[in-house]
Design brief:
eight-stranded antiparallel β-sheet; Immunoglobulin-like; six-stranded mixed β-sheet; about 280 residues; Jelly Rolls
Length: about 280
Amino acid sequence: MSNYNTSYSIAQSGDLYTLQDHGTTAGLAQYTSTRGTTVNAPMNGRPLKLFRNYDNTIFFFIKNQDRKPIFLQGIQVVANLVNRETGNIIYTTKAITIDPDLGSCKVIIYSGDTANIDDGFYSLVLSYIDSFGLNQPLYTDQNMRPNFTIEVTNEGWAEPIPTQELSEWYDPHNDGFLYSQRIAGPTYYGKRAGNITFGVYATGYTGKFYMQGTAAEQPEEADWFDLDLGQMTYYYQFVNFTGIEPFNLTSNLKYLRAKFEPADDVTVFGTVDKVVVRV
């Protein structure tokens, strides 16, 4: 059985066409359009998707009714994202010409531009200003629809695992050690690599610091064990430390908790303020 999968980067694209008279329009077309009523335009408009929290690039190929490329030199194509229920334009951007001879351009919608747009179906309408100064639509099919259906979706987005913070300490065993509550480890989230990164925030702290883990689903006290933090030791020794001390571990654990032992041979041993953990 193979464990390999394949991912694809698929460019979204669409064909558009414009209706012109039989003469070559300066600055717009390098071909003579038909005198007749036949329109050899695209048969349908392909639905598009707009993924929130990502930068989206959509390519367009603009042709006349004979399916010949429109010459885009000096022509500005504009894209409008329209609310289908209200008809209001909620986002406007200018297309970027790729190859003026082939009538190709692209529309880039950046992640920040979709942050306040709700998921759902919208219309993407493209237009241009012709040589007579008229604002002309670009059609998507033979029914002369000037809009693509575009779905705004959040389905491609995955939230990162939140940072966990330990800042409350308990002395359940009255043995001189202070413990935190338990937090989720890598196995809890199904992360097989087992990477654990944490930082200890302290103020004038002198003493030993431990990080404990367990693989048990419902851990009892005997299920917890100290992780290797130092050279041949299961703790890290702080001496009058103020600041942030970082640590990196690799271990497939279900839960984690912090433990520390303040020094008993100094009058003021400082504090461990918090421990910030990412898995």
